């Protein structure tokens, strides 16, 4: 069966690279853009130029289920998540927490994929360091989202990348500088024998990660697996 991919978070750094990678492979791709996006027209033009279809369904279970069903989606890629900056700029901060977005919207999409009936794989972009006891609201929300993905009936693949550097449109100078510094420290740790730590936590980039998500997402053998950072390069 010809795969039909649906990318949630298509307007993000990784999601956007993933839409590009899927289209380049000739895979029918639906890029989801939230209907209230201030850049909706811009994204519609950019995705059309890549050869992707654009879906603007609201983040509600019936609408998402219908969107996946109508478009015959076989592979869902969930690349959403909020950031501290988004949270501080939100008009409704209670709707922009890690719990509401990273966990809440992921769970909604898992349920939609299950109800739609045709989805064969749910690929979840999580994060390195995610575990049951991990500290902080971000990793806790990621852990809960992973649990929701595992509990769903659709076969899953969870990817846990480390820091994602590359040419991001949105300026994040502190993140970039911190990532480069961490890479230097990890290089040293690797040279001193800590190769596992270095390989787990050194940075990757959007295109490399997108290629890995596509590769694992379409690989039947990767169903039910959690792919750690060192295998996402
Ligand atoms: N960046 C890293 O270094 C890194 C490292 C490890 C794991 N990750 C994980 O990977 C995910 C994707 O990373 P990224 O760098 O591509 O993130 P990003 O550029 O910030 O993109 C986030 C995506 O989520 C969507 N989103 C955010 N809040 C939303 C909301 N309330 N409702 C609907 N959609 C919403 C955004 O849509 P809009 O454009 O419409 O806002 C965008 O498409 C992150 O969430 C993160 O947890 C990231």
Brief summary:
The chain is an alpha/beta fold. It has helices at residues 13-24, 40-50, 61-70, 84-89, 99-116, 137-151, 173-191, 195-201, 206-217; strands at 4-8, 28-32, 53-55, 75-78, 121-125, 156-160, 164-165, 204-205, 225-228.
Radius of gyration (Å): 17 Å
Shape: globular
Question: How far do the termini sit from each other?
Answer: 27 Å
Number of domains: 1
**Which CATH architecture?**
3-Layer(aba) Sandwich
Number of helices: 9
Structural class of the secondary elements? alpha/beta
Structure characterization notes:
The protein is of the alpha/beta class and 233 residues long. It has one domain: Rossmann fold. The protein has helices at 13-24, 40-50, 61-70, 84-89, 99-116, 137-151, 173-191, 195-201, 206-217, and strands at residues 4-8, 28-32, 53-55, 75-78, 121-125, 156-160, 164-165, 204-205, 225-228. The chain has a 7-stranded parallel beta sheet with strand order 3-2-1-4-5-6-9, sandwiched between helices. The chain has a two-stranded parallel sheet with strand order 7-8. Strand 2 (28-32), helix 2 (40-50) and strand 3 form a beta-alpha-beta unit. The protein is globular. The mean pLDDT is 95. It binds NADP nicotinamide-adenine-dinucleotide phosphate.
């Amino acid at each position: 069966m010809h795969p039909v991919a649906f990318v949630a978070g298509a307007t993000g750094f990784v999601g956007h690279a993933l839409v590009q990678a899927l289209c380049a492979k000739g895979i029918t791709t639906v890029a989801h853009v939230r209907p209230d996006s201030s850049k909706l027209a811009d994204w519609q033009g950019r995705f059309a130029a890549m050869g992707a279809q654009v879906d603007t369904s609201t983040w509600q279970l019936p609408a998402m289920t219908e969107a996946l069903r109508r478009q015959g989606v076989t592979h869902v890629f969930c690349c959403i998540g909020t950031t501290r900056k988004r949270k501080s700029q939100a008009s409704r901060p209670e709707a922009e927490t890690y719990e509401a977005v990273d966990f809440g919207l992921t769970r909604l999409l898992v349920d939609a994929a299950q109800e739609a009936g045709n989805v064969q794989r749910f690929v979840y972009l999580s994060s390195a360091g995610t575990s049951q006891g991990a500290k902080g609201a971000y990793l806790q929300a990621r852990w809960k989202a992973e649990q929701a993905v595992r509990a769903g009936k659709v076969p899953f693949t969870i990817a846990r990348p480390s820091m994602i550097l590359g040419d991001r449109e949105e300026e994040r100078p502190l993140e970039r500088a911190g990532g480069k510094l961490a890479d230097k420290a990890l290089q040293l740790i690797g040279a001193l024998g800590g190769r596992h730590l270095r390989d787990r936590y050194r940075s990757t980039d959007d295109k490399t990660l997108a290629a890995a998500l596509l590769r694992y997402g379409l690989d039947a053998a990767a169903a039910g697996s959690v792919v750690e950072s060192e295998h996402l390069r």
